[in-house]
Design brief:
By secondary structure, the chain is α/β, with parallel strands linked by helices. The chain has twelve helices and 16 strands.
Length: 395
Amino acid sequence: MPRTSVKGQVITDLVVEFVEPSLEEHTKRSDMDEKLVGMISLKESLSWKVYVAGAANQRGSGVGLVIISPDKIVIEKSLRMGFLATNNEVEYEALLIGMTMVQKMGGKNVEMFLDSRNRNPHADSLATLATSSAQSLPRVILVEDLYTPTKINVDVVYVHQIKMGPSWMDLVVLYLKESILPEEKSEADKVRRKAPRFWLFEDQKLYKRSFSGPYLLCMHPEATELLLIELHEGICESHTGGRSLSHRALTQGYWWPNMQKEALEYVKKCDQCQRFAPNIHQPRGVLNPLSSPWPFAQWGLDIVGPFLKAAGNKRFLLVGTDYFTKWVETEPLSNIRDLDARRFAWKNIVTRFGISHTLILDNGVQFDSKAFRRYCCDLGITNRYFTPAYPQGNG
């Protein structure tokens, strides 16, 4: 007598054993000739759901995990961390531990739910070691101590690093590290004299000793421009001048040779500094040539002092210099009035060398007064006024 139901059961067991995980078999029995009809239909992807939460406070840090398998089996776990960690580091550890547990249990598709208060109250309660739960889950919770951060062994992709070229630091570092000097005697003497001004740290970084401040990190020539860019127009951009920029680099703890010169050259290349620098609104003056065509035709007058008081309460010197012969006439004065300037011009220049063609003067009151101008105009002398190199001495 045929036993068709047994044959159908064997086929069903074979399909269950070798079917793909994404397929689910539904069997339906019918009374038509006692045959078993098998139906295989597609099912949604079988995924694990992992709810993780981290908590960090002054008492320590912990991780709570709720893992739900595709078969609706719930696994709870809580971990206490024996090392200091921030809230972000705790959540990162929770993610790693959750994925590791699912991988060990053979899971391939995982849905992670991280620190969502509305959808993740159970994992959050595990993280804070509380007992409240919205679901009727088992009360047995595994508690494990974690003393070191989790390390994942992955294939490391090394980035090609471009080695910086030779620089002035190489000889100093070589001497401080291995006491090796260049073969040339002059270069060896230079390195030997410069070496006491530097200090080599354990990480092979060279520092310059400072007299009154902290040690300064020596910068490679190829990295100085990046530092100047960051200080001049970085996140705390100031767009200061060259001297201020080099001084700021020093206060930040950096040093390299000729840093002030490089800072000045960099500021000159800054586009924003050239466009928006304050303009000089003073009108331009006419350029006057200072060439002297013959001896004693052009004199320059200036006042030097004050000095310590001498005999007759003399504190100043009125100096006249001929531009052609460089002859000097001088006279001590107790006051610097326009009357004294007129008397000096008549006594020391006109009566001895004749009436000059031009007098080169600064903008002092004693030279720019109406009386002195009228006196020179009556003698036919042309006055030329100029601004000296140091404006504080301009009269």
